[in-house]
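This section describes the prediction task in plain terms. A model, or a person checking by hand, is given the sequence of a single protein chain and must write out its three-dimensional structure as a string of tokens. No templates, partner chains or ligands are provided. The sample shown here is typical of the held-out split.
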Amino acid sequence: MLGRVVAFSNVGEKFKIEEVQVPDPEPGAAVVRVTMAGICGSDLHMWRGDVPNAGMAAGHEMVGRIAQLGAGVSTDSLGKPLKEGDRVTYPYFYPCRRCPICLRGDFAACPNEVARRPVGEAPFLTGAYADYYYLRPNHHVFRVPDELSDELVTPVNCALAQVTYGLERAGLRAGDSFVTQGAGGLGLSALAVARSMGARPLIAIDGQSNRLELAKRFGADETILIADFPEEAERVARVRQLTDGIGADVVADFVGMARVLPEGLAMTRNGGTYLEVGNISPTDEVALRPSQLARGNKRIVGVLHYNPWAIPVALDFLLRNRETYPFHEVISHQFPLAEIDQAFEQCEWAGRTGSSVIRGVLVP
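The expected answer:
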């Protein structure tokens, strides 16, 4: 059986769509037929060249159906029966489980984790932008409730699981004030989770007015459009005005650009927490005054991945709140896999003052 898989190219070049042999799953493994894959902000960062990825399988946010199960696989990671045709979601990265960090149960911080691989390397199908995805042996996998559509579930293994884990790491509590820098897929999910936790007020900052309108329906009490507050000092002052002059208990970066970090720290109250989630670039730098942390007794929490428990918690949250928040509107555009170049061009938001896209998905 053959299947398509997409690889990143050099910056400015089109994606490479290749056809590869779909491997039979080894014992403990599975082959998933991808039904929908999201264009996450981190994928756009890679496409721009913020992270060198030429030749690597592209995409990580997805949902699919079991195409073939390897020997010994009959249940998902919660012990629910699993068979061919069942819809599933799963972490897109693989902790080694054999290092001192993994032995502490902190799989999200594993220094040896693997995710996407070059498309010419077995098992070939390691990216979401493909017809099939290969789940390595004994990886965590979770069956998706029938009540949830692909459009709702596609962002679960990135956006919703990531913010669920991140807000827990940041220590957000009922009554805390919360600011999200960025109101894309992760920022919107964070607003819904934070509101369900009892945080107030919730403040969303973004450069796209349509995203901020949706942010209000996801629980934002206040929104800050960058065009209305073009200077950093103005945005910081507005956040402090909305938080009784002291700043927010938790501020989170879902933009992914280093330049927003000093601004976010200035919005964070003394003794508060800055949650860094969005920045994956190894070369993006910004000047920082350590005294801002020491004098303000502030802390920075970095989160790139999540521990596996976050996925079933996110699925349960989605199941219970799918009518409360407009999750069905987060995915605003769908594209065939063959039109991936046009999809990324349309989803790009950097340097634009307006875009109709909230989050785009590719459908193989």
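For orientation: Residues 160-302 form a domain with the Rossmann fold fold (CATH 3.40.50.720).
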